[in-house]
Amino acid sequence: MEWPLVFAAFILGLILGYIGKTLVSRGLGKSSKGAAIERSKMELSQHKQEVSDHLAEQRALLGQLTEQINRLNQHWNQGSQRLAKEEQLPPLPFMQTSTNDADDQVETTPSLRAEQN
User: Fold this and answer.
1) Which carries the bigger pLDDT value, residue 35 or residue 27?
2) C-beta of residue 90 within 8 angstroms of C-beta of residue 112
3) Rounded-to-integer distance, Cα 45 and Cα 26, Å
């Protein structure tokens, strides 16, 4: 008569263990999901900051490159005016350096604008 009682206690222990494990895992799951969401938000904001820093650095480098190209064009225009006085070559265009994206276009001289139209 003891074996059926031991078997029933074993089955009851399995059922209670499963229910307890389920309740505990639900509580841990909610807290781990909240931590995962917070971690994802932090990673996203860090990634946004890295992208922003990268774009700012690239914009600064492009500004420096534009200035160097303008100096090269100015040097080329001065040299061509001194060396080829009789030919009157059209000057090379200069690039604008501004903070507006709409203004980031190549500025052309009036003679080149006429040729383009």
Assistant:
1) 35
2) yes
3) 29
